[in-house]
Each structure stands twice: as structure tokens, then as C-alpha cells.
Amino acid sequence: MNQKTVDMILKFRDDRDWKQFHNPKDLAISISLEAAELLEVFQWSSTDVECVDKRDKIAEELADVVNYCVLMADACGLDLDEIVQKKVELNNKKYPVEKAKGKSDKYSEL
Q1: What angle do CA 41, 30, 79 make, to 5 degrees?
Q2: Where are the alpha helices (DSSP H) in 43-102?
Q3: Please, what are the averages of pLDDT over each run of 10 residues along the chain (110 residues)?
Q4: What stretch of H or E contains 4?
Q5: CA separation (Å) from 17 to 12, 63, 64?
Q6: Distance CA 48, CA 45 (A)
Q7: Is 39 left (phi over 0), alpha (psi -120 to 50) or beta?
Q8: DSSP of 7-56
Q9: CA–CA separation, 72 vs 45, rounded Å?
Q10: CATH code, residues 3-78
Q11: What is the structure's pLDDT at 46?
């Protein structure tokens, strides 16, 4: 995500004076609720695991999750690029290609 998009999300919040309500606890709850709404798109989808016909709704709910993640990072003073890069580095160690490629096993099972 580029800085322009992050700034747009923060401006939306600031224009409405909502930062006062955005503490980590409530933002974590909001992320979870929005993730549940994303999951709901797939409910009762039977064998259609991609839900191609629901792409617009998936995009809308995913955007809500991402927006709240940006707000959470801001509230906690975290740099999204930094924390994501660190997590990918950690996952690279936990899931080395030679052990994990083509497998869905948890790292402790590899």
C-alpha cells in the first residue's frame, strides 16, 4: 500500500474527528468484525470457494479490514511496511522453501 492511500485513510478519520475513538482495543474488535463480514461472503457458497460472482462484495469487505489495519498501525505507532517485512522474514525461517513448498502443514509439522 502506498503512502498516498494511507494518508487518504487517515485524512478520512481526521476530517471526522474519529481518532479519539480509535484505541487499539476497539480497532482490534473492528478488524475482527470486518473480517467476519468478509467471511460471511463465503458462507453457504458450497463448492464455489472463489465466489467469482461476489468479487465486488469481497473487495468492499477486504477494504474495510485493510482500512482498520491501517488505523490500528497508526494508533500503535507501527510502520506497516516494516512489520509486514519482518513477518515475511520470520515466515521465511519458519517455512523454508525446501521443506514447505507445496505443503499446507504448520511449521512445527515440517
Answers
A1: 110
A2: 55-76, 80-94, 97-100
A3: 96 98 98 96 79 90 98 97 97 91 83
A4: helix 3-15
A5: 9, 21, 18
A6: 5
A7: alpha
A8: HHHHHHHHHTT-GGG--HHHHHHHHHHHHHHHHHHHTT-TT-SS-GGGHH
A9: 31
A10: 1.10.287.1080
A11: 76
How far apart are the C-alpha atoms of 91 and 81, rounded to whole Å?
A: 15
Residue 22, phi-psi category: left (phi > 0), alpha (psi -120 to 50), beta (remainder): beta
- The grid coordinates of residue 37 equal 463480514
pLDDT value for 85: 97
> Domain residues of the chain, as ranges?
3-78
Q: At what angle do helices 55-76 and 24-42 cross, to 10 degrees?
A: 170
Cell of 38: 468478509
Question: For 38, how many CA atoms within 13 A lie in the half-sphere containing its CB?
Answer: 16
* pLDDT value for 94: 93
User: Using CA of residue 12, residue 13, residue 15, residue 16, what is the dihedral sign?
Assistant: positive
